[in-house]
Model the fold of this input.
Amino acid sequence: MKSEFEHDATPTWSGFIYQGHVAVYLAVRKICDLLEPPYFMEVQEIAASFKLEVENWEDVAVFNEDEQGKHYVSIHQVKNRREQNIGAYKKPLVQLLLEKSKLEELGLGIPEAYLHTSSEITEEENIINQFLQNWNNKVLEFYNDLETLKDQEIEENGKKEFQQKVSAVIGEEPIGLNRSKYSDILKSIKSCIQNDQEVSILKENIESLWNYLKNELAVEGMGADAGIYIYDDNTRGCDVENLFAKIVRQVMRYKEITHSPEQLTLEQFEYIADKLLDYIRKFISKRHCLMQKNKEYAKEFSFAEVIAILDNHVRYIEKEANIMALKRKYDEAMSQFCRVICKYKCKEENDHECRLLYPEYSITDLDEESFISMCFGYNPDCDKGIEDRMCVGKLLNSDGLQNSVFLVLKECAEEFFRQEKDKTRVVINDVNKNAFLTAISSRYVDVAIENIVKGINNNTAMVSSVFEADELITERLNSAEEEIWDSSFCDIEEKYLSERAKENSDIIRDSICAPKKPAFVTAEELMRRLQ
Done:
């Protein structure tokens, strides 16, 4: 069944990432809760009957399905935002109350309703409950006012006064539902007043809005029973970075409840958590892609999928573990960028598509080797191998990503991007120079060069491509002097040419194919140049 509340707009990256973390946490915690008192359910029973739904009835929903039908257990609004006051979340909380009412009307259960925020809400519970009650009352008052207006008998000489009453009621519209049908009805009412149309036409539109509230949103059954989600450590609010630790704790809890014979290390528990996040990342990304193409897409997956990952005997593979951890670090940095740094705050209605959502800049569909190439392309100053646990600390650091990579992807005009078939790198046309986008965040040019030299010694195939660039875009380095590449460049040249020869046997060592000595330019300086 298609929900009136199903998303019909492009989600932001921050919401996309945060939603996935919340979904994984909810699924694993719910499985653990059902295994313990008072439920004492068997793992097989949970796997067979419980499912998790994404962006249909709310951002995330948990339901069970048996011979008696589908019953929603909980619905969850997910907001990756900085505000810590409850008033900033009026729209999502009102929507939660409406959805709960609609589900009950449809006989689909009486779900618990929660808001998840990345910043902890500061008000006490009684204050939050009072806000919810006030908003609930405002919606019901709006509904009753519309009913009065639609039933009111109006003489022609009372038209202006009636229009003023309608304008006043519509001006206080308390729902703010971001759905095209709802918005269109409101626009029609305002248009009738602005164009001084007949009262009968205006009343028809008022009745359409009243019927929408009654039949589509189930306003008559609305209550004030929703809340801020409380995590297992009693916090009310949690960002992506801290959510991962909570997911790991729930994985540990599951293994303890099911008496797992495996003696796992912390890294292995994190590995399982990352596998769960990798699953949900691909699921949500595929759903979004198909939705944008107006194709059929899955909205739900079984808890059996989650349990299969939890139960899978851990054969810890350092390379695979590091790649998944790096993807998570990329997601965490992106989530924080959207929430804290981005100057263009994404509007509730998501009426634009951010370039950070473009498929060519997505990491979700990159195979392992391509993802590794992207990592070293952004951080050629990392001298660790992908199998080395230390690489997770050095590659894809958040400062370089946020202040260079994400900044340029977000702000740079489309005309300056060079179209590359290679998804592992981004090239900017800086006055006919090839400028490679990197996440290098070193404060000193000499340190960056020394680290790049180490990188090409240890990861020649991954790092050598940066010497095809005229410039390297960095967080803070700005130097155009060729002398910055000292005698160690001879060693780089030798490795670069031998690597090119491996790729193409037609390359002759004394040909024009030779490594460049790229200059460094800061992302901010590049942006100023290209304005």
User: Anything to note?
Assistant: Residues 136-221 form one domain. The longest helix spans residues 125-151. The chain has 18 helices and eleven strands.
